[in-house]
Specification:
single chain, alpha/beta, six-stranded mixed sheet
């Protein structure tokens, strides 16, 4: 699961483990996990998502449809309806002078895999050498997902954004903030992130299919296991990309209970699984979270 653990969060800025495949799971109704946070006059549906999906993936069911219909606002990690702003933020943060060639930023035994991955990048090699290591990782992750038949335009957030057309759209972070988390990583952590995307499209799709099967059946324990192994999700990555952001979001959700209404909050499924999940942090604050699917 090395690739998935280090790249799913990256794709959210632009647009989880069993052995079952998507086709084996497709006959059964999907039941992705859904929670509810509520008080006397506020209801928040908290939904764990996957940011990029293959064609034909079914995930909407009556419980999800009810949450969509009842909500006047959709809140995602970042706004999904302004790709020009996302691209502009990436360009502002991704490039720097005086960087070593990107091939020199991975161990010798990883350089051939990186060379093959770079050949499929739409960005010229000279430009990639000027990109920070985290930005090269994001770029290669996008290429690998595309080669594996995975499309962020079919991801849950993109579909929900369309479903909420005409209603309020909000975000927990700006694209600049989200990319800033990667930009703030120490160089060693950035290079680990880059190494984490050096897999073949076939390996990516096999791992992704297992994660997708777990997500469709609402198996948060399986999702959590892929984020608890620190072999490639280093302490720096975990703290900045998961723990710190989950704490920020829990604070936001608690404050949002002070405003009446019903909303849907959709964030990556990895943030809603494991000991440092958003729900755990809410409960530490005394906020009750109820799983409804």
């Amino acid at each position: 699961m090395k690739f998935l653990k280090t790249s799913l969060a990256a794709l959210a800025a632009f647009a989880l483990a069993s052995c079952a495949t998507v086709s084996e799971e497709s006959a059964a109704e999907a039941r992705p996990a859904l929670w509810q946070v509520a008080d006397e006059d506020t209801t928040i549906y908290l939904y764990g998502t996957i940011h990029t999906l293959p064609e034909g993936t079914e995930w909407r069911n009556p419980a999800i449809e009810q949450a969509i219909a009842a909500s006047s606002e959709l809140v995602t990690e970042v706004r999904m309806d302004d790709q020009m702003a996302a691209a502009g933020a990436f360009v502002r943060l991704a490039f720097a002078n005086g960087l070593p060639p990107v091939l020199e930023r991975v161990p010798a035994d990883k350089r051939e895999a990186l060379r093959v991955a770079l050949e499929g990048s739409p960005i010229p090699a000279a430009a990639l050498d000027r990109m920070k290591s985290w930005a090269v990782g994001i770029t290669l992750a996008q290429v690998l997902f595309e080669r594996a038949g995975l499309n962020p335009a079919l991801g849950v957030e993109a579909v929900l954004t369309e479903a909420f057309r005409g209603r309020t759209l909000g975000a927990l972070e700006t694209v600049e903030q989200q990319l800033g988390f990667f930009d703030a990583l120490p160089e060693e952590a950035q290079r680990l992130f880059l190494q984490g995307v050096l897999e073949t499209p076939e390996d990516v799709r096999r791992e992704f299919d297992g994660m997708l099967a777990a997500w469709r059946r609402g198996d948060t324990e399986a999702i959590a296991r892929t984020f608890n192994d620190e072999e490639t999700l280093s302490p720096d990555l975990r703290e900045i990309l998961l723990t710190r952001r989950n704490a920020n979001w829990a604070e936001w959700l608690q404050r949002r209970l002070d405003r009446p209404g019903t909303i849907m909050v959709a964030v990556g499924a990895g943030h809603l699984a494991g000991p440092d999940s958003v729900q755990t942090m809410l409960e530490r604050r005394g906020v009750r979270v109820r799983r409804i699917q």
